[in-house]
Write a structure and sequence with these properties.
The chain has 184 residues and is mainly α. 68% of the residues lie in helices and 0% in strands. The N and C termini lie far apart (38 Å).
């Protein structure tokens, strides 16, 4: 399997359309799941996926397997493309200003029992600012400093958005809410 992937990557480096098609088919579903976590509109998520693959194909020569795994490198590209798409949709104006609530954030462990599609359905109505920071921090492992740099916000704002995302989750987690969201 690894040799197969190495052959596909070598073909992609040679701009072989068949190899590019094979790489796309191998990782498109996974990449689309990443893009959907950040972009609510399906067509825009697919646009982010396509932008990501275009960037992957044009920048593949910069990938260094000594510095990390291919999927981690590709994941960062998909996240960045999804964030760019989100920014185009007036992202920076979407950070809601909620009054400070004295509520402890909910633990993330409950979400690891869901599969990706269930989690996407549940988080879809979350305000985009909260969801973006939640995805970057919890799902993709970015630090608050990295999130701040990517989104052009302070680390404190990133921490605040994550806290508010957790509060949103706590306020919206109930068996009835889960059932109704997962059934829709």
């Amino acid at each position: 399997m690894q040799n197969d992937l190495e052959e596909i990557l070598a073909g992609c480096l040679q701009k072989d359309r068949k190899a590019q098609h094979l790489l796309f088919n191998r990782f498109a579903r996974w990449g689309l799941t990443i893009c959907r976590r950040y972009v609510n509109i399906e067509e825009k998520a697919q646009e982010a996926l396509q932008d990501g693959f275009l960037r992957i194909f044009t920048k593949l020569d910069t990938f260094d397997p000594q510095r990390g795994e291919l999927k981690a490198w590709m994941s960062r590209i998909f996240v960045n493309c999804a964030l760019t798409t989100t920014k185009k949709e007036a992202f920076n104006n979407s950070f809601s200003a909620l009054a400070d609530l004295n509520v402890e954030p909910v633990s993330e462990e409950v979400f690891y029992s869901f599969d990706g599609e269930e989690l996407l359905k549940f988080l879809k109505p979350m305000p985009v600012g909260y969801k973006t920071v939640f995805n970057m921090y919890i799902m993709d492992g970015y630090s608050h400093k990295e999130i701040g740099q990517h989104l052009n916000i302070s680390e404190i704002t990133s921490r605040s958005q994550l806290r508010k995302a957790k509060i949103w989750i706590k306020d919206n987690v109930s068996l009835d809410a889960l059932k109704s969201r997962l059934e829709s």
